[in-house]
Design brief:
Length: 37
Amino acid sequence: MGRKVHLELSSADNCAAVIGQVLAALGDSSNPDQEPR
């Protein structure tokens, strides 16, 4: 099962932080230290 997320940012300055927050909110299964929500 896959997931798709489409993001539109006004600048690339903070894209890594935004992606990190999205992955945390989704319970990123590729990060074994992250507990699923």
